[in-house]
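Ticket #4471: complex job returned nothing on first submit. Input attached below:
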Amino acid sequence: MSPRPVSTDKQGTTADPNHPLHKLTPEQLEELGREFQAIHDEVYADLGERDAEYIRGLIRFHRRLAAVSRIALLGSGSTIGLVAGTAGLSVAKILENMEIGHNVLHGQWDWMNDPKIHSSTWEWDSASPSSSWKHSHNYVHHTYTNVIGKDKDVGYEIMRVDERQPWKPAYLGQPIYNLLLAALFEWGVAFHDLDLEAMRNGEKPMTQVKEELRGIVRKAMRQVVKDYIAFPLLSGRNWRRTLAANATANVVRNVWAYAIIFCGHFPDQAYTFTEEEAADESMGAWYVRQLIGAANIEGGDTFHLMSGNLSFQVEHHLFPDMPSSRYKEIAPRVKDICDRYELPYNTGPFLKQFGSVQRSLLRLAFPGGFQKRKPGPYVAPEPPASATETNPLRRAFPQVV
Amino acid sequence: MEIAARPQVSALRRVVSRVGRTLTTPLLPDDYFEMLSSRWATRELRAEVIAVRRETPDTTTIVLRPAAAWPGHAAGQYLRLGVHIDGIRHWRAYTITSDDAHPDGLLSVTVKRVDGGRVSPWIATSCRPGDTVYLGEAEGTFVVPDPAPERILMLTAGSGITPIWSLLRSLSRADGVRDVVHVHCCRDEEDFIFAADLLAAGEHHDGYRLLPHYRSERERLTPADLDGLVPDWAERTTFLSGPSAMIDAFAAHWTEYGDRSLLHLERFQPVIGGDATTTPGSGGTIRFRMTEFEAESDGRTSILEAGEATGHALPHGCRMGVCHTCKCTLVSGRVRDLRTGEVLGDPGELIRTCVTAPEGPVELDEGHVVMRGTNARSIR
Ligand SMILES: Cc1cc2nc3c(=O)[nH]c(=O)nc-3n(C[C@H](O)[C@H](O)[C@H](O)COP(=O)(O)OP(=O)(O)OC[C@H]3O[C@@H](n4cnc5c(N)ncnc54)[C@H](O)[C@@H]3O)c2cc1C
Ligand code: FES
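Support reply: We reran it on our side without changes. The output follows.
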């Protein structure tokens, strides 16, 4: 653990003794690291048939839904075929990218040792080839999470999402980029993965960039041929409607993925860090940074499924290689740790999180900015009074009250 | 990561797959077809367990029907068998004990339960006809040399008898059992795998002399016993298969008193650098491309160990070159096989990091991000 930093930042975050990253002693951090590690190890020791059945079943469900939707769209001349096919394909693409693809590529299912459901072999239905994405997302983003200048997902090199990123006139176009990025998210991700900045800084040899570019072009071609040429052709005279349906499904998936992902890191609650804040951090401090650099979205089971359980972005960042289906189960234990160490647990309803992201994006298009309001430490709710049942009326007539 | 063999598929199916991929990318048409029938799978060779037979109280033979034609093997070779236990696929090597020219294309393996083990107890108690298993390629060099030697000594113990069983069958088919002495060690007759057939052959076949060595009656066999049991042991081509301790003891004996080139041996738990006397290579720097870290090897240290020494939890299984779990793609450079001393590797080739060391600088693509510290994922 690096020594407690002296004030270097005029925003004052580094010097703030209440900053969650600095308030714990090295001993507390070590203990905290052990506690988080214990959750990971317990879940890993318990993984088995139930988990394997979950992902296998989901993959089967996705394939059936995709096949049925594509077939329905061959008959896109009928309104029912068109609407059902488009809706089905949108849902299939969302499931495939989020709960299946993203999580398989994280290695969450590698423990099954099944070469068909494995991070080293999986390819997803997205413009971005999995190999570049695994580097830029799994490695760069998940290691340097929210460290300005290191985590290239902070603004994706085109947007200003944090007031500490220096302003440039190009950011004036941010509201437009924002809309474009939402609609074309998969293409943005593919381009982002190339990491041209690393090439400019000489961190990445030109040969590797060329190789990756070839990979992207090859992958993108296949995707385009499938959605915009082959299936429309197969639909005969309905080709226009199938083309439109496929484009719609891709855009729906893109906008949804964009919304979930932006809600995961850019709401006001989530912290960003300077390079010095993250330098030489201990394992415990790494966990704290992951914990406070992410934010959850509240919702029901279907919502969690459709978000690829990235609605548990906090748990995902603590344990990127843990099967996503376990996040909900461990969330209470994470909250309990937050409660005891007086750390924040970032969460909120979808519209609130999304609203705060959009407000920042608009404001930060212009110079300056505002310090985002951070929540205080998480406090576990008091056990509800009904647990002990002090209300005599309720005790007598539980169904009435 | 460890994968099954590729089944042989017809040219027509390959064309369908290539064309159909336009519609199914990034998946293959197979991924959809195999939901209809597992026989449609064209990427991994599967087999159905069609019979489970008890050989001795702790040994079980399972008979397998491959879903696609079995490409064939030589007697004495082994295959990797993949089984699903509690959601996890485990791979182990097993000698193929079925006839290498089985008329129905069936395969079998004969497995002795290792207490505390993961796979062998599962085969002994949970494996049922109808189960699906995965098959790797036939591997191994423990086969009869060509031409077949005149005078042969077979030295086996416990489940080490399995490759010898296959060798004997293949030899007898070619009329090669002319002067074979077979010393087999086990607890007693009940513990003797394939006892009925071998004891009968010992009685009725002139060229085959069986000398069972039962631990319930005698001391454990040592190399010193050989002179009394098989006086001409040093002149015989010898096939040795048994537990590690036995192999070590006898191999040392051959090196000292016999002709090591006449001794063929099969280890069920191989050791790196144990048998081959290889000269260490130059070593070098290993760059892991996906997770962006570097490791150093002196030429004796495997890539796996060198990578682990930097605190990264690289995938591995057996750590001895059998399971293929540790494979990474070679991006550039060459590596030395620590077992044979051979220098190998072309760009794009998958190499086993547990039994190779860099020969000069190498770059690897580990295929996925490896975690640091204790977030290890070891699949065994
Ligand atoms: C080339 C080759 C051919 C083989 N052929 C056969 C065969 O025909 N029949 C057969 O039964 N086995 C054979 N084996 C051994 C087999 O691959 C497994 O190692 C064995 O079945 C134990 O697996 P497990 O999962 O039950 O034990 P594991 O879970 O792998 O191991 C549990 C414990 O047992 C120890 N152990 C592992 N293997 C053995 C062993 N063979 N003897 C004693 N202790 C051991 C381990 O060190 C560990 O401590 C062969 C191995 C090789 C490399
Ligand atoms: S082959 Fe098993 S770990 Fe390398």
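Residues 373-380 of chain B have pLDDT under 50 and may be disordered. Closing as resolved unless it happens again.
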